[in-house]
Design goal:
Blueprint (H helix, E strand, L loop, with lengths): L14 H5 L3 E8 L2 E6 L2 E4 L7 H12 L12 E5 L5 E5 L8 E5 L6 H8 L5 H12 L3 E5 L5 H9 L8 E5 L13 E5 L13 H8 L6 E4 L6 H10 L6 E5 L6 H9 L7 H11 L2 E7 L5 E10 L2 E6 L1
Length: about 300
Amino acid sequence: MRSETHLGYWLGPLEPLFADPKVSEIMVLDHDRVFVEREGEMLATGAHFADRRALQDVIERLLLPLGRELTQAQPFADGRLGDGARFTATIPPLTPAPTLTLRKEVAIDLGEAWQDALAGDDRPLRILRAWVREGRNIVISGAAGTGKTSLLRHLAREIPRGERVLTIEETRELDLARVHPHVVALETRPANRAGLYAITLDDLVRLALHMRPDRIIVGEIRGKEAYDWLAALDTGHRGSLTTLHATSAQDVPERLLAAMALAHAMPMAPLRQRVLRLLGGVVHLTRDADGRRRPTDIVRFVDGGVEAVWP
């Protein structure tokens, strides 16, 4: 008999792992190769599916409520489950075997976690919380899995409760309605089978400008939406929050410029000055070998240059 998770999805051999509160991520490399991240440590498990078809059945079951499917033409998909967990799935020929990555929404006391990682230093969070209240435009940078989204969700609590917040994401995971009373959540939509009716991040950034936002929060900037986001900041929208993949806080302006170049061919020098003028500050996050996530530096941009704020 197939057991059902509280989500209503059959996860088969993954169910005990999904139910484990210490497991934050489940990574299926093939039907007989399943890894988890438990308390920051990557571990192999004995969990396995009967065969690749059984694994693909679970993937299809996850996609069904979302109206999505994997095909030879579209061999990857991602989505969000009912309790906030995210998943990404692939099938051949994109990968040699079907794969599935499930990232659970794990409750984290960010203040406690950072103080533990920073030997009790609470200045980084105090600085960032004050910046949000001041209405600075903040970029949270770092590699995948460093806690960027967790920090963004945490800082959203500092937005004054009388302000209207618009969130823009490819896959909704911020769920700021839990921490703020006035949130409009916008989510992109992939094209249909005919390649039509896609709604992109840059579409949503432009749309947000017509919805009377006090704060515009973009879950992650990766491409040409950077140009529209910067244009929104230049029209007087303050206090924006977003995340960006970067190797350091100082690298963020160049990463934004590279993203904007995907949308418009224009001289970089004046655009760079515009970026530096509109960015209020950057916090860069890393993940240690023991799994602990922490900030490494916080900078702000003044007079066209970079100023270290912490440490």
